[in-house]
Amino acid sequence: MDTAMQPDVLVIDDLQKHFGGLEIMRGVDLTIKHGERHALVGPNGAGKSTLFNLISGEHRPSGGQIYLRGQRISGLKPEQISRRGLTRSFQITNVFSRMSAFENIRIGVMARHGIRFNLYRRIKPMRAINDEAHALLQQVRLDHRADNLASDLTYSEQRALEIGMTLATGAEVILLDEPTAGMSRDETAYMVELIRQVTEGKTLMMVEHDMSVVFGLCDRISVLVYGRILATGSPEEIRSNQEVQSAYLGEEEEH
Ligand SMILES: Nc1ncnc2c1ncn2[C@@H]1O[C@H](COP(=O)(O)OP(=O)(O)OP(=O)(O)O)[C@@H](O)[C@H]1O
């Protein structure tokens, strides 16, 4: 679908963040459209993770607003934002290492259904929860690893598990922070296909340094430089943008 026709799911309006006297977000305006895969790129220290932390509620903005489907979410706590349908993964793997892959996913499913551990013994709802957790494991291609401790999974399997946990919350808007970081070329290709499949019909915003992943997977790209959006556009528009070339892409190619 032409992204111009899609409604805005996430609207970021003049977002600012200071850490003490340090201005990190300097008035970010950005809209993410329903169903698109949107990459956030930019040089190290541009503020990409900070922007994710602001959207998902880990940080409170110093100024400006964030709206999810027209409702203000800036100032809400991460769990409140997650309940409204937006969730994120972190740059560093964030799984429960002493639990099995299956249990990791099940925790997310249980949280979504508001089931606490003291209700564990009610068999019927647990069966439905288990079925859902198995289906999610299958979606992230880890069903053969269901009973393995998360700490025994390979690095890329752990990142896939983390994506499964993100899906388990039932979120329609998913933020992934560098999902292919530290992966080999084959693992990256595998992860890109996995992300493509599991985000079908959902809205994805991802921070990614690997431009081949960005250009191959995303419908639109925003370039964040020094706490401001320098440009937003299709992969072709971003590739041919002179300002982006000199501020970011040229620098990436040199490295
Ligand atoms: N809690 C904090 N307190 C103070 N400064 C912070 C804090 N979090 C981030 N910063 C600073 O904000 C700036 C942006 O950092 P951020 O991690 O958002 O950049 P990034 O674009 O994600 O970088 P990278 O690509 O290297 O991950 C950096 O200068 C960082 O030192």
From TrEMBL:
Gene3D superfamilies per the UniProt record, alphabetical: P-loop containing nucleotide triphosphate hydrolases (3.40.50.300)
GO cellular component: plasma membrane
Protein name as it appears in the record: Leucine/isoleucine/valine ABC-like transporter, ATPase subunit
Ranges where the ABC transporter domain occurs: 10-251
InterPro entries: AAA+_ATPase, ABC_AA/LPS_Transport, ABC_transporter-like_ATP-bd, BCA_ABC_TP_C, P-loop_NTPase
Keyword NAD set for record: no
Domain of life the protein comes from: Bacteria
Cited Pfam families: ABC_tran, BCA_ABC_TP_C
Keyword line: ATP-binding, Nucleotide-binding, Transport
MF (Gene Ontology): ATP binding; ATP hydrolysis activity
SMART domains referenced in this protein's UniProt entry, alphabetically: AAA (SM00382)
